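Still learning folds. Look over my entry:

…
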Amino acid sequence: MALKLNEHISNNTKLYTLGGEPVTILNLISEEGGQGDVYKVSWRGKEFALKWYNRYETDVVGENQYSTILKLTQRPNPEPRLFIWPQAIVTETGRAEKGDMFGYVMQLIPAEHYEMKHYLRSDGDPKQKKFDTFHAMIWAGMHIVTAVRALHLTGLSYKDLNPGNIAIHPVTGKAVMVDCDNISVDNDPCTVNGMRGYMAPEIVRSNFSVTPNIQTDQFSLAIILFRLFYMDHPMEGKLWEKFPMITEQVEDELYCRHPLYNMNSQDDRNRPTENYAPNVKKRMALLPKILMEGFEQTFVNGIDHITGRTPENRWLQILSSARDQLVFLDPKCKTDRVVRFDKKETIPRGCLKLTVSKRLNHEVALYPMQSLFKDVVSGDRKDYTVRIGRVSVLQGSLVMQNLSGGVWKVYSPIDRKINPVQNEEWFKVMPETQIQFDEVHNIVGKVDDPRR
């Protein structure tokens, strides 16, 4: 019996990939999608997810959406740990005849990952999710930016970045891009313009003649990150209170045609209020200030000038600095806070500051449970998850362990000697300690007491 629009597929129904492999429906996962339903299926002896298009007559074999997904199934996943990538086209018969309904199989979303939209829900909402720590929040941002960066480096653009396309683990901050069926070669025609509130200004200003591309992705990415960290929308504020009813036309006006960033350093007309963006200033007081640099660049310089938007490499640099300004306050890593070296009241007793070379100018708060990551030393942003050192406390003094796999040279102010520190060895850290991480490039870290 032929499947129809807006109808569910019964459990145990067999569909087929274009290669003739059976795909068995196990159960419905979600019917909330705008284009179709998502099922858990059995394929190749394992469980996968199937997105089945059943909302629009145009989402069939031979049309643009089918063509986009077919091309994606023929391309390698640009970052397998961060993308739930389309793996195979599925139809009722395994044939692809023009006008047939279709879907595609992909990996299931990892356990305990929740769509970002649930992290934006208000207190009291039973579906609300919260990050366990600020560390998890910053890590989520780094994973999202890395995914977008990997996509852009292959010449692809996402086209429709929004909170429903990202799933995040609340404890680790691990994030995956879960809805990848609109990704295509940059500037290729596509079937979407983006979600209202996340679209770049030029799309709406052009009356939707501008095709989503890498530059529009960069704007959408900044909106995603702002809401990830501060919950509220960066263009919402006092100006919105002039409108008794918020219609789609008003949203287009204030989000895109004449947007004004609510924390614009040059214009305070749209500052957050109790009704619009009430969480922004509260979160700003809790998170590293450096985050605001990326938003100022995109939402002030990058509104009218698309090349002025914060690129992914710069975001990773900003987020790396933010990550290293956070310290855990307990051995179980349940409570954390930001350290602001210019405000002594934020610096825990015994915390030291590591400044990694003038060239990189990267500051790390040294405190028990802190980690040192390779991107700090190499400058290569893809190294952001590689831990090369960790900090602990021994008999009341800070100590660091070399986990780099190589030898560090450490200057000790006690004996005023430079000593080699082998991989996995520990050494005492105190003011005036110097660490040569990379002899070839002379990457040196200097330790001082930020409370002095």
In short: The chain is about 20% helix and 25% strand. The first strand starts at residue 14 and ends at 17. The chain has a mean pLDDT of 95. The first helix runs from residue 64 to 73.
